[in-house]
Amino acid sequence: MTETTATAAPRWCLLGRDGTGAVTAVDVRADGTRGESVGLASEALPDFVEERERGGSAPRWVWSDAPSWYPQLLAAGVRVKRCHDLRLGHAILRQSELVRDRGPLLAAHEWDAAPTAEPEGPSADTALFDLDEPSGPASTVPHGTASVSAEFDRQLEAIAASTDPGRLRLLLAAESAGALVAVELRAAGVPWDAAEHDRLLTEALGPRPPGDFKPAKMQAVADEVRAALGDREASLDSPPRLLRALRRAGIDAGSTSRWELAEFEHPAIEPLLRYKKLSRLLNANGWSWIDEWVHEGRYRPVYVPGGVVTGRWASSGGGALQLPRALRPALRADPGWMLVSADVAQLEPRVLAAMAGDRAMAAAGYGKDLYSGLMESGIVATRQEAKIAVLGAMYGSTTGDSGRLVPRLRQGFPAAMRLVDRAAEVGEQGGIVSTWLGRSSPAPSSEWAELQSRASLPGATSRDEGAARRAAREFGRFTRNFVVQGTAAEWALAWLAELRLRLAALPLDERIDPASASGPAFERRPHLVFFLHDEVIVHAPASQAETAADAVRASAEAAGRLLFGGAPVDFPLDVRISERATKE
DNA sequence: ACCTTAAGCGCG
DNA sequence: AAAGCGCGCTTAAGGT
Prior knowledge:
The chain is α+β, with helices and mostly antiparallel strands. Among the domains are: 12-188; 195-290, no CATH class; 353-483, no CATH class. It has helices spanning 45-54, 66-75, 86-93, 103-107, 124-131, 145-160, 165-188, 194-205, 216-229, 239-248, 258-261, 269-285, 287-293, 347-356, 359-365, 370-376, 383-395, 400-412, 414-428, 446-456, 462-504, 545-564; strands spanning 12-17, 23-28, 34-40, 60-63, 83-85, 190-191, 294-295, 298-299, 303-304, 314-315, 337-344, 527-531, 535-541, 573-578.
């Protein structure tokens, strides 16, 4: 993620579209001056981009958003090293407390668009829809050359005049790299063994039944439940009706949720919990999921970078972020390929230690499991207690075991705890907090503010006061967690950004037949296929699996240095090389 | 017949 | 074993 500082070479290249769909490219030098505008037919863009990428000083491509531009390039076999995603940049900068004058960005409403839904680009229908919808947030981002150029200037100006240009530059570079990764992930697809998936389903549920019938094993469990309830008509699939059936059988539950049902001693409970598990598997990730999301051996979920307020990715379709671990074995490398799976141990507490400069907390996790480190340092008695205490500190628990253990952490790691406690205080007062690189939390809603002011008026009832206090604490827990979750997301983006560049620089594996390769730009070379907050999976030719694993580790180190410099915090990875992803 | 909301549970 | 944060997805229920 280093910037080239060549003076003559253009630093950025702006891409826009004119009314006819043709592309214009404009070079921008480091001082902001523009080169001549180059007109290109849409079909000529991949060659144009590839030629610029091949040289030693590829520009950072500035475009409306990656999903509108990048899929076509990838389909033509062209990757880019860096981009500036204006939609994502706008969303960050218009909100960031580091930006001194947000006025110009806040006024540019046309950039407050939702993510481009289809990676293939906006369809004609969406464009018509926009014309019919003169007010309200835009559903697509502007692509016109003038709009793109003006927004880029606004963003550069906002960054330059901010309280910390370096951090915001890093944040936007990382966010934009994430946007590239998301498009690349979808293009590559997750190598998915539908036969193995089917085998797992059949093992749990019974063979796939025709139509809407229940699978046999699931039906058998349902029969067990009904027998234990003494009610052959009991409905198990509708919570309200199930609740009534349970009550008729003497189980006086307040809801049908798992943890509540587990409290009751009744022969129907155990099979019912089993039934709910099977039902969930069938409905969320059953055969119809395979039909919808897996084609030609690839599962292609839709990722939404920056889709969560904290900066985490969201997903929209395919449920990539909620894949049950039980189905992980269906994620299987192609013949001759391997999976390199890596996850960071205790990312969030490590990020917290680094942000707070808490040397004691950093030392507790250095080179080892952080929870065990806490136990060994005598702050808590067991690893389990350490985990509960740490999660409680980051989420703001006040009750139960967690609430009891957090004060010990406050004693052992005062710097780290001060940071999250302070973030919570700010939120309780309706304030805004920011991540390490400058992503800021949203202000509380107007309803929240009204609740607070009503409670402070003379005529306020104790009911008003209670409600206001609860809402204040709730918002405090949100801001407390925001700084940690958001900074962890930044670390993960930096990891991805570094990794995709390192992988793309690896040599092609000449022994792999191009015809058997998975996607246009991914032939014969290790590439990312899965990302889940603190975890990546790389699909690599077997001969390059070790090299890819080294790249994964080196990228994690680089991410730590990039964000936190010399802070004595490490981010140890659990790296596995295997043919199929495993449950643990 | 359509849209929104809530419950429940999957993930970190 | 569950409460403290952030999500998406499916189904059923409730509203129009």
